[in-house]
Design brief:
There is one protein chain. This protein has 14 helices and 24 strands. By secondary structure, the chain is an alpha/beta fold. Bound molecules: flavin-adenine dinucleotide. The site of flavin-adenine dinucleotide has 36 residues, from helix 1, strand 2, helix 2, helix 3 and helix 9.
């Protein structure tokens, strides 16, 4: 066996995903003595198996949906034909292009900054990488990401018929049928895309929850919308999975009846597990919570009062790409400048699910506001009758805006509706700027646009706060349908 190499490093980053790459860049402002350890393939989860390939699949699904929907506008398209191989070919090719950018970026780093292998702690400052290298690190950034969480019994029962998102984007062709277990963001996005691409799907949810919305009025609406959009068993109970040859047999109870359906594959979208459980954290001397997650401060990324920082999905806090990048910058900067650890303000929470209609959450959620016992008011708009949404036949869903009583300060928003990705950005920027409802209403609104719905919700909100008049119904000075 080859002897173990020993290294001494100032800053060591575990994981070369989005958080690790941005931590690397930030640490370089303080020291060149940086090493990034990566156990898997370079290219990042976002580009290889996450944000980008899922959005590529959704884009293909949107194209198919547009053709199906065309007759509603009096436009007859010829018979829809979906070439599964061509769909997957484009997804893989574009995915490889995005992945290539991340791989190129790492290849440009000095060789001394990269090491391949699985890192684990031997002591607070000591890391072992596979069986080949031992490192003494002054400071460490944990940026190890997350992986799909799959009940082990399902693997035993289904073997290679069980898929996670990582597997989907390597398909050469679209499959015949897929059972999607999990009605969260990943499950809904992939299931709806596959459904629109002609794959027979059924989504299995738990307890009736569909998507991340916490506002009871919107959560109910969202469930209704997606139940209509695709086969969805939101309250599947006693889910039983077995394999018969190459067929996955799913049996479940719903509304008192037992159902059985057969699928070619089962896609588990049952949540993500932070990759901190294979780091031997028990040797690191770090404070851990009851789930074994390091206890850290989000504005410094520092774990306890230690020399170890954590960023990205690994901290199980805000498992989103822009947050991973931001946390990587914070962790890298603070690991580089340690012990002069600095506080970096965080941006307003913003999350988007790319279903149709899209789902988005901004600032403080309804659940958080309610739990905090804050006095807040709600203003809402339904998109069902909203002018531009009707014109485009995307008139589904609603938006709820929340603001503080007394000040009118915007606190947050939840929505399921058309162009939620754009409305959510406008609102997140407003919340972060510290806008009040009056500030939001003082902005220009073009006509006819979906943003006019935000104005309607803001007027309702102003009224609910007792800060303005009863909104005029069908106010024609705003333009028809605003
Ligand atoms: C299907 C899907 C769709 C998504 N869509 C979106 C979206 O639309 N928008 C959005 O904002 N977010 C989305 N996300 C989430 C987003 O992809 C993640 O939040 C982000 O990629 C996390 O980046 P990261 O740097 O924390 O982890 P990663 O990019 O996963 O990097 C972690 C790296 O650490 C390595 N590693 C792990 N353990 C070790 C070890 N012990 N030693 C050495 N290396 C190790 C891993 O191999 C990996 O390369 C999606 C995720 C999925 C799965």
């Amino acid at each position: 066996m080859a002897p173990i190499r020993t290294l001494e490093k100032e800053v060591v980053i575990i994981g070369a995903g989005t958080a690790g790459m941005s931590a690397h860049r930030a640490a370089l402002a303080h020291t060149q003595d940086v090493l990034v350890i990566e156990s898997g393939a370079y290219g990042t989860t976002c580009a290889r198996v996450g944000c980008m390939p899922s959005k590529l699949m959704i884009a293909a699904a949107d194209a198919a949906h547009g053709v199906r929907k065309a007759p509603a506008f009096g436009v007859e398209a010829r018979e829809l034909h979906i070439d599964g191989q061509a769909v997957m070919q484009r997804i893989r090719a574009e995915r490889d292009r995005f992945t290539g950018f991340a791989i190129e970026a790492v290849a440009e780093w000095p060789k001394a900054h990269r090491l391949q292998g699985h890192a684990r702690f031997l002591g607070p400052h000591t890391l072992q990488v596979d069986e080949h290298t031992r490192i003494e690190a002054q400071r460490i950034v944990i940026a190890t990401g997350s992986r799909s969480r799959v009940p082990p019994a399902w693997r035993q029962a289904l073997g290679d018929r069980l898929l996670v998102n990582d597997d989907v984007f390597d398909w050469q062709d679209l499959p015949d049928s897929v059972a999607v277990v999990g009605a969260g963001a990943i499950g809904l996005e992939l299931a709806q895309a596959l459904h629109r691409l002609g794959v027979r799907v059924r989504v299995f949810g738990k307890g009736g929850k569909v998507g991340p919305l916490t506002d009871p009025e919107l959560a109910g609406r969202s469930r209704g919308i997606f139940e209509q959009a695709m086969p969805l068993s939101a309250k599947a109970e006693d889910l039983d999975l077995r394999r018969e040859g190459d067929v996955v047999v799913v049996t479940w109870k719903e509304n008192g009846a037992t159902h059985t359906e057969r699928f070619a594959w089962l896609l588990a979208a049952t949540g993500r597990q932070a990759n901190v459980d294979q780091l031997d954290l028990q040797h690191a001397g770090l404070p851990l919570d009851d789930k074994g997650q390091p206890v850290f401060e989000p504005c410094t990324a520092r774990i306890g009062d230690s020399h170890v920082f954590i960023a990205g999905d690994a901290n199980a806090d805000r498992p989103l790409l822009h947050e991973a990048a931001a946390e990587g910058r914070i962790a890298g900067d603070n690991a580089g400048r340690y012990p002069d650890v600095r506080v970096h303000p965080r941006t307003t929470p913003l999350s988007i699910v790319f279903t149709d209609p899209q789902i988005a959450m901004v600032g403080q959620s309804h659940k958080r506001l309610t739990e905090a016992g804050k006095p807040f008011a709600t203003g809402s708009v339904s998109f069902e009758d909203q002018g531009r949404s009707r014109v485009r036949l995307v008139n589904q869903g609603a938006l709820q805006l929340y603001a503080e009583h007394g000040s009118g300060l915007l606190l947050g928003a939840e929505m399921v509706g058309p162009e939620a990705e754009h409305l959510a950005h406008l609102l997140a920027w407003s919340v972060q700027r510290g806008d009040t409802v009056a500030d939001l209403l003082a902005m220009p609104y073009y006509h006819p646009v979906i943003e006019e719905g935000v104005r309607t919700a803001a007027r309702e909100l102003r009224r609910a706060l007792h800060m303005g008049p009863e909104p005029v119904k069908r106010c024609i000075d705003c333009g028809p349908g605003a």
